[in-house]
Design goal:
The complex is a heterodimer of chains A (291) and B (225).
Chain A: H1 2-47, H2 68-75, H3 79-110, H4 116-125, H5 131-144, H6 151-155, H7 162-173, H8 177-185, H9 190-201, H10 203-218, H11 222-227, H12 236-249, H13 255-287
Chain B: H1 2-26, H2 33-45, H3 48-58, H4 65-72, H5 84-112, H6 116-124, H7 129-140, H8 142-157, H9 161-167, H10 178-187, H11 192-224
Helix pairs in contact in B: 1-5, 1-8, 2-5, 3-9, 5-8, 6-7, 8-11, 10-11
The chains are: A mainly alpha (291), B mainly alpha (225).
């Protein structure tokens, strides 16, 4: 009797569990739809011929596909130039961050010099100061240097970061000291130990830093807004913000064009994200830093 | 400053609760969670400007999808970004949408760090699922909760891009947040000194919050060791 009773309990429990799983999936799908619909809307709108984007009720599928918008944003507005600017600035920032942060991280973890840890703590403390706070003094410095409207003005201020140095220092600290000692006994120079032993061993951390630097640089708005005064210096993000502002000034903004531009701005980041997810999620849970 | 506080007080707790719910569902050993995580994370890595532009069209009072959905389920349409009362809630909504994936990943990491045995022990003792959540899961998540709350508040105080692109501080200054105001004072009106003073106040607030987080984290770590 009792065994049958228990079997029945287990059966209902399983049924309840199944129901919960089913409801869980439904909830996740609903959330996923709200997450994805705006992106879908962006792509669909970018394919619609101008003037037909706002039919009522809204259409989630385009009636006809019109790639002209993509051609127009590169001819009407210099989005090609913006794209090249962004790629250049982002690449320079990423390379700079990886080089400088890894070298500094090596120094802070593997070289001995007076005041090393004090300097490191001061460095760490700068992480507490958000960028928006130093915006004005930083701008004034860059202005006095005559770097407004230049690539170095866009690149240099973000070419190193306390976060990156911290990240790589921790990675290097995890590598056994014996490696360094063994290489030294074999006569390797400090530079060689760094470049041929420590850097390759910290591959995933370097990748995490590179991905973060890429995302941060590609999607930055506030700094380019101040520095890239000239149209020819604008980055994609800034170009899109201005483009949106200028078309919105007309009574009927040309949304398909704006959306096509948004796709161009967003696509590289999404592609990089899909291929580097592993590092990205790892980095985010490690550091709690926002993209 | 009042606007910033309003934005923070709405965006942080609501965003945390919603993403915790998602994380709890995702923690149920469902198949395909990986795909959902990828999708939920898309807004997080997207650029603020592009996201803002998309949401301007979605929230269009006449032809936007959001109002279309409201009308079709029988609710009155809302003039989302045009009304001083609803402009800030609209920004909050967009922020929650954009950051949900980030919070979710952190919650999920926190949830997965809780040993399974604790849940099993509670279940054997006859605790209901709700009780397990309230008395086992939630207390053990407190470091995560604290972390998300502080980092959420700090980043809310720094919000700029969506305000710049979507509302420009309007309508009627209802979305004029701290960093946007500093930016306006310094680079539109060229009152660098005035803006610097504002930046200092913002810095003190953020610095205190960061210090609280730092001390709390160290306290926790010492406890664990």
């Amino acid at each position: 009797m009792t065994t049958i009773y228990y079997i029945r309990i287990i059966k209902t429990k399983n049924a309840v569990k199944l129901l919960f799983k089913f409801l869980g999936y439904i909830a996740l799908i609903v959330v996923a739809i709200t997450m994805v619909i705006p992106f879908e809307w962006m792509i669909i709108t970018s394919l619609k011929p101008a003037g037909t984007e706002f039919s009522y009720p809204p259409e989630l599928l385009p009636r006809s596909i019109d790639l002209n918008n993509y051609i127009k944003i590169f001819t009407m507005v210099p989005f090609g130039r913006y794209f090249a600017n962004t790629v250049f600035v982002t690449l320079a920032t990423v390379i700079g961050q990886v080089l400088i942060c890894s070298m500094a991280g090596y120094g802070f973890s593997r070289l001995n010099f007076i005041g090393r840890d004090v300097i490191f703590v001061i460095y760490l403390a700068t992480m507490m100061i958000p960028f928006q706070i130093i915006l004005i003094p930083l701008y004034l410095i860059v202005f006095k240097l005559g770097w407004v409207n230049t690539y170095q003005g866009l690149i240099i201020p973000s070419i190193s970061s306390a976060f990156g140095i911290f990240l790589l220092r921790q990675a290097f600290l995890n590598i056994p000291r014996d490696f360094q000692d063994a290489a030294r006994i074999d006569g390797a120079s400090e530079w060689r130990i760094f470049a041929q032993i420590f850097l390759p061993l910290s591959g995933p951390t370097v990748a995490t830093l590179a991905v973060f630097a890429f995302m941060g640089s590609w999607t930055d708005l506030l700094w380019p807004l101040l520095i890239a005064r000239d149209k020819s210096m604008r980055t994609l993000e800034l170009g899109l913000a201005y483009f949106n502002a200028t078309t919105s000034a007309f009574k009927q903004p040309n949304w398909p064009l704006v959306m096509a531009a948004s796709v161009v701005v967003m696509l590289p980041v999404l592609i990089v994200y899909f291929f580097t997810q592993r590092y990205f999620v790892a980095g985010i849970t490690l550091s709690g830093l926002k993209g | 400053m009042k606007n910033t506080a309003y934005y923070t007080l709405m965006a942080v707790p609501l965003g945390m609760i919603i993403s915790l719910l998602i994380a709890l569902v995702m923690n149920q050993n469902l198949k395909g969670v990986y795909i959902f995580r990828t999708l939920f994370f898309m807004p997080v890595i997207s650029s603020w400007v592009a996201v803002s532009v998309i949401w301007i069209t979605l929230l269009d009072p006449n032809v936007g999808i959001v109002n279309y959905v409201l009308r079709s389920i029988g609710l009155p349409p809302v003039n989302w970004l045009g009304d001083p009362h609803s402009a800030m809630p609209s920004l909050v909504m967009i922020t929650i949408w954009k950051n949900a994936g980030f919070n979710m990943v952190i919650w999920l990491a926190g949830l997965q760090a809780i040993p399974r045995e604790l849940h099993e022990a509670a279940a054997i003792d006859g605790a209901s699922n709700l009780q397990i959540f309230r008395y086992v899961t939630l207390p053990l998540l407190s470091p995560t909760t604290f972390f998300l709350a502080i980092t959420g508040v700090i980043s809310s105080f720094q919000v700029f891009s969506p305000v710049y692109v979507i509302t420009k501080g309007g309508p009627l200054d209802s979305t004029d947040v701290a960093v946007f105001r500093i930016f306006q004072r310094a680079f539109s009106e060229f009152k660098m000194g005035y803006a610097s003073a504002q930046a200092w106040i913002l810095f003190v607030i953020i610095f205190v919050l960061t210090l609280v987080q730092f001390l709390y984290m160290r306290h926790r770590v010492e406890q664990i060791i």
